[in-house]
């Protein structure tokens, strides 16, 4: 170790040996297709360009691989989050290997465990690592994901992503419908991976509240079924 051994972990987290005041836990949320993963990668790019070092994490990315992919064609390798991953241990292991970690990009954070959201808060408060989380707020029944609920409770900042996603009727779409065999599902496991490509076994479609509650997928769906 160098002189860094005299510094607290929080100072090491800053990478440059200075304690930065103001690490924050920020949660960006919105329905599918609103550009969450695109914003996650843009955030990583912006911080990396300023010389900061971060880790990109995801869970259940649409590619089903350890990467963040976006519907507009961007991709970035990522660490796949599993239930037993301790985010603090992950950062400590990187530090032990001599790498700086100034921030985490946590894509698909709605699928993380509640314990992992607590770990995000620990990283901000005790390690001075910024955590930027991106995800859905609600599941296919329009109920909060447990991790999203905890992020709403703990985050320093919560932002609704402003890219509008429209229901087929033209209203703003806030809710993610799970479509199984052409109908809006009302029961089932909270997490079932599908994509928004038509005619998959399970797919998701963004609807306005009115049509989510009515289970109305619109005239295109009616013609296709
Ligand atoms: Zn609608």
Number of strands: 11
Low-confidence stretches: 1-14
Q: What is the general shape?
A: elongated
Number of helices: 7
Separation of the first and last Cα atoms: 66 Å
- Mind telling me the CATH superfamily name of the largest domain? P-loop containing nucleotide triphosphate hydrolases
User: From the coordinates shown, what is the CATH architecture of the largest domain?
Assistant: 3-Layer(aba) Sandwich
Structural class: alpha/beta
According to CATH, what is the class of the largest domain? Alpha Beta
Mean pLDDT: 87
What is the strand content?
A: 15-25%
Which ions and ligands are bound to the chains? zinc ion
Q: What radius of gyration results from the CA coordinates?
A: 19 Å
How many domains, in number, for the residues? 2
Main sheet strand line-up: 5-2-6-7-1-8
**Helix-strand pattern:** HEHEEEEHEHEHEEEEHH
Share of helical residues: 25-40%
Biggest beta sheet summary: 6 strands, parallel
The third-level CATH topology of the largest domain is Rossmann fold
Word description of this protein:
It is a single chain. The protein has 225 residues and is of the alpha/beta class. Helix 4 runs parallel beside helix 5. The protein has 2 domains: 161 residues, P-loop containing nucleotide triphosphate hydrolases (Rossmann fold, 3-Layer(aba) Sandwich); 62 residues, Wheat Germ Agglutinin (Isolectin 2), domain 1 (2-Layer Sandwich). Strand 9 and strand 10 form a beta hairpin. A 6-stranded parallel beta sheet has the order 5-2-6-7-1-8, sandwiched between helices. It has a 3-stranded antiparallel beta sheet with strand order 10-9-11. A two-stranded antiparallel ribbon has the order 3-4. It is 29% helix and 20% strand. The chain has 7 helices and 11 strands. It binds zinc ion. The site of zinc ion has 7 residues, from helix 6.
